[in-house]
Design goal:
single chain, Translation Initiation Factor IF3, globular, alpha+beta, 2 helices
Length: about 120
C-alpha cells in the first residue's frame, strides 16, 4: 500500500470524528472548538487560538501529535494536552489517520482571587 498519501496535505477537508462532538449536546459559553487544517496553515490557526484564549476565550483544538515539529514546540506547549488513544478515523475514511491526535486546550489567563 503506498504510504505517500498519508503525508500529503493536498486535502484539508477531513471531517472530525463524530464522537468528539458529544460535549456539544450541552450549552457551552465562551468556548471555541477548532479542528484546524493540518497543512501549512495550522500554525496560523494555533496562533489565533492562543490569542483568543488571551482575550478571555477558551479554545479547544484537535491536532496531530508530532512532537518533533515547530507546531508542537511553539504553539501546542502553550496549552494543555489530552492525548487520544489510538488513531482517529476522519469522516468516512476506511483507514485511521497515520498519526496520533490530541486535544489541546488554551485557557484564558487567571485574574485575581483564588480558584
Amino acid at each position: 500500500m503506498p504510504r505517500n498519501v498519508h503525508f500529503s496535505s493536498e486535502r484539508q477537508d477531513w471531517e472530525t470524528p463524530q464522537y468528539l462532538f458529544d460535549g456539544l449536546s450541552q450549552q457551552w459559553r465562551g468556548v471555541c472548538w477548532i479542528n484546524p487544517p493540518y497543512g501549512r496553515e495550522i500554525g496560523r490557526s494555533m496562533q489565533t487560538a492562543i490569542e483568543s484564549a488571551g482575550n478571555r476565550g477558551l479554545v479547544v483544538c484537535l491536532v496531530p501529535v508530532r512532537t518533533d515539529t515547530r507546531l508542537c514546540h511553539k504553539y501546542a506547549t502553550c496549552g494543555e494536552f489530552r492525548y487520544l488513544r489510538g488513531r482517529l478515523k476522519f469522516g468516512n475514511a476506511k483507514n485511521p489517520a497515520p498519526f496520533p491526535s490530541a486535544i489541546v486546550i488554551f485557557r484564558p489567563p487567571r485574574t485575581g482571587g483564588i480558584r
